[in-house]
C-alpha cells in the first residue's frame, strides 16, 4: 500500500489538465450511514490507536466526495486502502507529499512570475498578449487535478483539517511535525473548479495592471493661478502621491500648497471626477482644484470626460469573481471569511475591535496635539500621513536622492552592494548574507514596487522597486529596503523551516512587520546616525511614528472591510451605487475617528488606497503588521537584530498568537503601543 500511495502522489506531476473536460463540483453523495460504517470499518482494521483521527478525517473526506468520484461503496473501499495508521509510514507520506508540492507549487509560481514580467518590470519589452498571459494562472487546475487523481482524498484522510480555535488550543503541545500535519490538513477544504480560479486570476491581474499604470504627471499640474508646483515626474496612485505628500513637511507654506494639491488630486480619483485624459498622459495640463484641462496648445477643453467609474468597476468585478469561488467553500463561504479566518487566521470581529478601540483611544488626540504644535497650524485631512516623527523629515529629499542615485544607479548595484550592506549592518554573518543575496533577484518595477516570494528552494524571490534611467531615487530606495525585508523573511522561512508545508509566516502582517523593521532603518542604513544623546528622544519619535501610521491605516482598513460587508449585503449593486457607498463609508469612518482631530467633515480620503482595487481585503494586514512591528521592536532592543530574526522566523506558519508567544512572549495587542505612545509623549518632543 505504501508504494500505491507514493505512486498516487507522484502521479500529479504527470497529470495534464488541458485535455480534460472540466466539471463543476456537485454535492456529496456520501450519507451519514456510509460515514459511520466507514469509520467502524477503519477502527475494526486498525484498532483504537488512531480512532480520533479516523473520526475527524472520514467525515471531512466524505463531504468532498461526489458522484463523479465513485459510489459510496467505492468511498469506503478507498478509505480502507489509503488510510495510514502506522506513524512511520505516515511520516514518509508527509515527506513525499511536501516534496511533490514544492515541485508543483514552485514551478507554477515560476511560470507565473515569468509570464507577468512584461507587466511588472520596465526592462522587458511588451506585446499585445502580455495582459492575457499575465492573467493566466498555471495553478488554476491544481485542486481539480488533486481531486480527480484522488490525491486530495488521501491527504484529507491522513491529515485532517483543524479549525483555528482547535489549532490555538491544541497547538500549545504540538511538535513541529504536528504543526506540519495540521497545515497539510488545510490543503483541501473546498473544491473550487479551475474555471473559477482562472476567472479570479484574470480579474486580479487586470486590476493590478490598471493600478500599475495609473500615474499622475505632476509637472502638468497647475494651481488656479496657473503655477506649476512640481517638477516633471510620474507618480503612481496612491503610493507615489502619498509619499510625495510626505516629503513636503519641512517646506513651510510652499510645501503646504503642494500637499493641498495632492490631496485634491486624491479626492478626484476617489469620486472619479478626475479627467480621463490626464491619467498616465503628459499631453494635457490639469488644474485639480477647478478641474480645468488644457490641451497641448494651451486651449481649454470645453467638457473633458471624467474617468468612467473604472476604479469601482474593477472593485465590483473583483467581488463578482470572488462570488464564483464562494459557493465551493463550505468552510470559508465568503471572501471576507477567507481573508480573515483562513488567510489572516484572525477573525473579522477581532480585527474590527482592535482597530476601533485604537482609533478611539484618547492617546490619539494627545499625539495629534503634538503634531499640530510641531506644524504650527491646524491639522488637515492629509495630515494622516504626517511624516515629521521620522528623522528623514528634516532632510531634503533631493539630497537623499542624490545619494541613492550615486550608490544605486542600476538594479545590479542594489543587488551586489545594497543588499549585502543592509544585511551586514543588521548583524547577519557573512555566510548568511551570501546565501540570502543569492536567493533574491532585483527588478525595476512598473508599479510602486513589491516582493514576490519563491515557492521552491531552487528559485529566487523577487524584489521590485522603481529605478529610473538616472538611478534609484530616495522613494525607490525606501521601497526597496521595505521589500528586501519581505525577501529576507521569504528566504528564511522557505529554507530554514523544518517542514516545507510550514514555509512562510502566519499571515502577511508578519512579513509586513519585518519589512517595516527594515524600512524604519533606511536612513541609518545610508549612514545617517542619531546625534549624541538623542537616542531616548529618537526612540520616542519612532514610537509616535508607528503609532500615527497605525492610526492612519486602521481607518483605511475599516473602509475596505465595511465596503466588502456592504457588497455582500447588496450583491447586485452597480458601480455607481458602489462608488456612492464606498465614499459614504469613508465619510462615516472619517467623521467618527478623524474629523474631530483633522477637521473637514465628510472627507473621503480614507478611500484612496489602491490596495482596495488590486488586493482585495489585504489592507487590514498593514495595521496588524504595525502592531506586530512595535512588539518586535520592543523585543529587538539591545539585541543583534539578525540574531533575533533568525530565532523568530524559522518556526514558520504557526497561528498568529502561537507565533507571537514564541517570538516576543505575548500575543498581538494594541496595549503595548498605546502605553508606549503615552510614555513617549512625556519626552521633550519639539
- CA distance, first residue to last residue: 73 Å
Radius of gyration: 26 Å
What structural category do the secondary elements indicate? mainly alpha
Largest sheet descriptor = 3 strands, mixed
Strand order of the largest sheet: 5-7-6
Poorly predicted tracts of residues: 1-25
**Care to count the β-strands?**
7
Number of helices: 31
What would your notes on this structure say?
This protein is mainly alpha-helical. It is 58% helix and 4% strand. It contains 31 helices and 7 strands.
What is this structure's SSE topology?
Elements: H1 2-10, H2 32-46, H3 51-64, H4 72-82, H5 87-120, H6 130-134, H7 142-148, H8 151-158, H9 164-170, H10 176-184, H11 194-212, E1 215-217, E2 234-236, H12 239-246, H13 252-271, E3 285-287, E4 292-294, H14 310-326, H15 335-344, H16 348-359, H17 362-375, H18 397-407, H19 411-425, H20 430-438, E5 440-444, E6 449-452, E7 461-465, H21 474-495, H22 508-520, H23 522-526, H24 535-569, H25 575-593, H26 595-598, H27 611-614, H28 621-636, H29 641-648, H30 656-664, H31 671-680
Give the tags:
686 residues; mainly alpha; two-stranded antiparallel ribbon; 31 helices; 7 strands; globular; disordered N terminus
Put the structure in a nutshell.
By secondary structure, the protein is mainly alpha-helical. The protein has helices spanning 2-10, 32-46, 51-64, 72-82, 87-120, 130-134, 142-148, 151-158, 164-170, 176-184, 194-212, 239-246, 252-271, 310-326, 335-344, 348-359, 362-375, 397-407, 411-425, 430-438, 474-495, 508-520, 522-526, 535-569, 575-593, 595-598, 611-614, 621-636, 641-648, 656-664, 671-680; strands spanning 215-217, 234-236, 285-287, 292-294, 440-444, 449-452, 461-465.
